[in-house]
Every structure is written in structure tokens, then in C-alpha cells.
Known about the structure:
This protein is of the alpha+beta class.
Amino acid sequence: MSVPLQGLASTGVHAGALIALRPLFSSASTAQTNADCVSTLNASRTPIGTQQSPVAFKFRINIIRADMSYSKRFPRVMMDYDGGERPDYDDVAVEDSLTLFVNDIRIATLIASPEQLKELCIGYLISEGVVSSFEEIQSIDVDDDKNEASIVVSSFDQVELWQEVRSSGCIGMKWWTNEDVRVDSAATFEKVVLKKSLTHLDTQARRQTHGVHVAALFDATGKLLAQAVDVGRHSAIDKVIGIYAGNDFSDTFLLSSGRQPAGMVLKAARAGIPLILSKAAPISTGVEAAVQAGVTLICFATGRQFAVYSHPERLV
Length: 316
């Protein structure tokens, strides 16, 4: 199904809303209701504000309130070490692959939860530097039978260069030092606002499967702008960026449940997000990238304290 450029949808984006692009899994694999086979989640279905989404506006995306296929239900046997056992079931997080072709060039195969695939594509293109702006994306076509997404962008030469660099085998641990990524933002953030945002890490999908990551985007006042869950921490961030694409990220902060290596930090930096808040640990490359890119990196965040690794001047 092709997603054209000239759309005039006025629908607002909701967290966990199901996009009218068919998921990677066939309906036969996700629509079963047998308790021993499949269960679907209503993950994060609370509306996010009232602001219209430039993504929905540009691509005429029909937002459908529907159950998410973030999990499948499997039978299991619970056993203790003394010989006791009982039958049980478990809701297990679902993943599938999606191969991205940009201007007919294969650039990546992503492993992700089979929801919000359009947002995943848009967020990936922006956060990985395939495009420099949301406006460069002209069309998206998702083929659920082949698990492929065909995307047309205006900056064809940039896509060829991006693909050449990443397929050259010359990228080392500090490949980002040759990339000019710098967040230009004068935004400041109150510590109490950051603390309150941590409650959004507790989603139904995360509680039920214990197998997904959460990412969320907020403005400086703490208003929730976008939220996504995914089996991969990278894909969760891509989806959040894709949801909010077309808006100004310079006064926002990103909440993540995952560790923060350079790849995660630079996703935020390329989108223009000045602050990352994570409950997990940083990786050395992530700290170095945050310092260089002008991103405030906060990790080990709990309701009692957090650790700031770069640019603490943004905190008030």
C-alpha cells in the first residue's frame, strides 16, 4: 500500500494507535483468539495531547483504534526446584523484520515490533542521517508480504553516500567523530519534570511481556508528545521520532528504558533532541558522543536520583 505525499488528514496521533498500513504479521497469525495461541495488547492507548501530527497530515494516515499485536500467548509449565509444577501461559513479546529500500537502494533490515511501521521508517531515516529533514521524505510503500518498505526521498545523492560509508567496512568505534552532529538548543529542564516523566516507562506491554523497551518524548513542561514500545531500544526511539517528525525537537527531551551507547545518543542528536533521560546505564561511546554533540545525557534515573554525564547546564 503506497503512502502518498499529498495527504490532508487532520487526525491527531495517539500512543499505540494502529496505522492503516498492514502489520508484518498476517491476520491469520495475529487474529486468533485461542487462549493457548495468541493474545493482543491494548498498549498505551491514551491520547497524546491535541496537536495535529505533521506525519498524519503529510501522508494521509488513517489512525485506527485497535488492539496491538505486541505479544503472542504461549502455554508453559512453571516448575520449582523441589519438583512442583503447574500449567500456565505467558504473553511473549513479538518481533519481525522489515527491510528498508530508499530510492531502490537497500539500506537496512530492522528487527522491531510489528506496529507503527511507518513511524519506524520515518524515525530511522531521520535518526540515522539518511535524510536531513522530514520534508525530504516523499513517499512510503510497505509490502507486508515481503516484509519490505520502499521509500522515495528527494536527496538521492545523500542516500548513496550514506549507503557507501556504512557498507565500506571502515567504520570503527569512533565513526561518529567524522560526522558533524551538534544540537543547538537553549532549552532548560526542571529536575522535577524529569522525575515525573519516569512514570511513563511503566506501560501495559512492558508489564505484561517484560520483553519490550519504552521510549517517550516530552516538551520542557513535561507534556507527553509521543510514546512507543518495541522489542528493540533503538526501534522504540525511531518510532517516537517518527511520530513527532515535522515538529521542532529543540525544546524536547527523550525518555528511554535502554542503555545509551553512541548509536542511541546520536539518534536523538540528529533529530535535534537536547536531553536524554534513561533509567539504564551509559556506554563509554555514548558519553563521548553526548559531550561532542551537545546532548545532555542522564542515566540511572530513579525516583530518588540520577547521574548526569554531559552538559548539566541545561538542568534547573
